[in-house]
From TrEMBL:
SUPFAM superfamilies: Sigma2 domain of RNA polymerase sigma factors, Sigma3 and sigma4 domains of RNA polymerase sigma factors
UniProt keyword annotation of NAD present: no
Entry protein name: RNA polymerase sigma-70 factor (ECF subfamily)
Pfam families: Sigma70_r2 (PF04542), Sigma70_r4_2 (PF08281)
InterPro entries recorded: RNA_pol_sigma-70-like (IPR039425), RNA_pol_sigma-70_dom (IPR014284), RNA_pol_sigma70_bacteroid (IPR014327), RNA_pol_sigma70_r2 (IPR007627), RNA_pol_sigma70_r4_t2 (IPR013249), RNA_pol_sigma_r2 (IPR013325), RNA_pol_sigma_r3/r4-like (IPR013324), WH-like_DNA-bd_sf (IPR036388)
Similarity field: Belongs to the sigma-70 factor family. ECF subfamily.
Database matches in CDD domains: Sigma70_r4
Alphabetical list of PANTHER family matching this protein: RNA POLYMERASE ECF-TYPE SIGMA FACTO, RNA POLYMERASE SIGMA-70 FACTOR ECF SUBFAMILY
Phylogenetic lineage: Bacteria, Pseudomonadati, Bacteroidota, Bacteroidia, Bacteroidales
């Protein structure tokens, strides 16, 4: 709820021409929108262009931005639509692999050994996420990292809410299975899985 209030304050300032507020909005959503754009385009360069286009369009029509009720959803839908427009315009899109699915795990301990273990946990979880099928991975990222609701994910990816739920369930099961293969000690497994639950 507080995020929504913060977004509305930013939108109000942007609609009045506040460049600082616009930059804050850009910084807040850039990486998420880049990831979403990359999901459709498979090109870092084109994904960056799409996000730049979306924010440029927002600045151009900033005076009418107050009419937008949910800027987060608006940004995601705009990015999706712009990416699809790029696909229609450019049938030959270079595929440039890039990791946009990193999840940072904050260490609760300060000793070097624990920090090293936390890095290892993060690596295993990252590998598990990357092993997911592409659609499942994107649904899971939008759900876990972007904190989007099932309905919002369904709208962005043009799938049903039941499909979103199925992908999230599959993701949890496959990640747990992957982690189980990598680690046999129950303590380690529980620590890593606690990241998600």
């Amino acid at each position: 709820m507080s995020d929504n209030i913060e977004d509305k304050n930013l939108i109000k300032k942007i609609s009045q021409g506040d460049e600082g507020a616009f930059r804050a909005l850009f910084d807040q959503y850039y990486q998420s929108l880049l990831s979403l754009s990359f999901y459709f385009l498979k090109s870092r360069e084109l994904a960056e262009e799409v996000v730049a286009d979306v924010f440029y369009a927002i600045w151009l029509k900033k005076e009418s931005l107050n009419k937008v009720n949910d800027i987060k959803n608006y940004l995601y839908i705009s990015t999706k639509n712009q990416a699809l427009l790029y696909i229609r315009k450019s049938p030959f899109i270079d595929k440039q692999p890039i990791d946009l699915y990193t999840i940072n795990i904050a260490s609760e301990e300060s000793d070097p050994e624990t920090k090293l273990l936390d890095k290892e946990y993060q690596k295993i979880i990252q590998e598990a996420i990357l092993s997911l099928p592409e659609k499942c991975r994107e649904v899971f990222r939008l759900f876990l990292s972007e904190k989007l609701k099932h309905k919002e994910i369904a709208q962005i990816l043009n799938i049903s809410e039941k499909t979103v739920e199925a992908h999230i369930t599959t993701a949890y099961k496959r990640i747990a299975s992957y982690v189980n293969k990598e680690y046999s000690k129950e303590k380690n497994i529980n620590k890593m899985l606690s990241i998600f639950f």
